[in-house]
Amino acid sequence: MSTTDGRIAPNGEAWLEAVYWFYKYGPYAAARPHGPKKFGGTTLRMAKAIAHLTECRPSVGNLVEWLKISERTVKYHLAMLRESGLLTYRSKGTRVSGSGGRASEFVRTIPQVFDDAAGLRTGPSDKLIRAVHGFSPEKTPLLQELHAAARPPRRKKRTKRSNRRSGRTPSATSSCTPMVVSTSSSSTAGDTSSPSESKLASGQHKSPSPKKPTRRKLNTIGRRYQLAAELIQQVGWLHRAAVPRIAWIVRHVADAGWSTAEVIAVIGLEAPARRVHRPSGFLANRLKGAHLLYDTPAKRTAILDHWRDSRHAEHDRHVEWWEGDCRRPASRAVAREVDAVFAQLQQPDAPGPDERELAVGDDGLVALEQLTRDEVIELRAAALKDPALIRATVRTCGETYARRLFTSALVDQVQRLTRLGRTVVHGWRPA
């Protein structure tokens, strides 16, 4: 994402328009000596499957199963989409210890060559890198052709037909008014009267017994399953637990009318475990006898307030270094090393023989003119390895100061990646 010149497609249909243009008019031709050279029908089938993915993480195995083609063919056409600029890596697939293999994650992008050929005028955008602001009228036929090709076919509406066969033979002609059998005052159908034409035209006719909307009420089992599903969603170490098993564990508190927040408060009263090996057993141990101890709503409200106050106090006492865009490493060894580095940075060190004091201006910032060329190069190289240095400089010293120190191109690149949700920069080279 840091090196692409394309823009992020706003939706799958807009991305398919660019794919169809490459298929029919595009200049792409593969340079490899084997495999397909140009876009074909298999490329379009694969693009349609990728366009419907919520997260663009097309596993090769899934594409093989969906499209009924070989694994080598899938890899060929994925490479064609990447080389043409229609797919861009967000993160490459890898095998993380303890998490299993993960497929590569892509972003559906539209190259600049398509915008130029389709006469689209684009401008900067925070979310899409570039956004379309207009088009050339002479390119309207091409845009209509691409839009019609990318739009999914409309399904025919199914008409409701009654499966019941009427005892009467249907007549050749149909009538818009009720059929009148006889002119007598009495009728075999009972006292059925049709509303007047004026009420039908104005829509004022109302049913004599309107149906009231009925809301389905959960029974005891449904309440247990609802509480179990909410706990699995909100408690981190329960995310892999089975809903039926958790529903059986929380059956007593669910029958007593406990809310999800009250259950979480009781679980959090004791010290949190470093590692939960068996979530269902751990939950059962924490809730053992809780429905008997907190048997009234007043007691549950009091314990919930106490838990919330303790959480706020703990947050005020422990200010994490991991605020903002950074996330704590999953490895404990790496986390301990980073904590040691932060602790060392907090301790004031005695100035070395090569260190010199820099004058500070009225605004509290160091004048950049005092830095040597080698120092500026070292700072920019450090920013290339860790973009958090640029974000910290922008927050503390201002964006203008950061642009003077690290160049505007580097600051713009980090801000763009921050908006895309990425915190790691790949492929940057110092000038």
From TrEMBL:
Domain of life from the UniProt record: Bacteria
Native source species: Streptomyces tremellae
Residue stretches of biased makeup (Basic residues): 152-167, 208-218
InterPro entries: WH-like_DNA-bd_sf (IPR036388), WH_DNA-bd_sf (IPR036390)
Region (Disordered): 140-218
Record's protein name: Transcriptional regulator
Compositionally biased intervals (Low complexity): 173-198
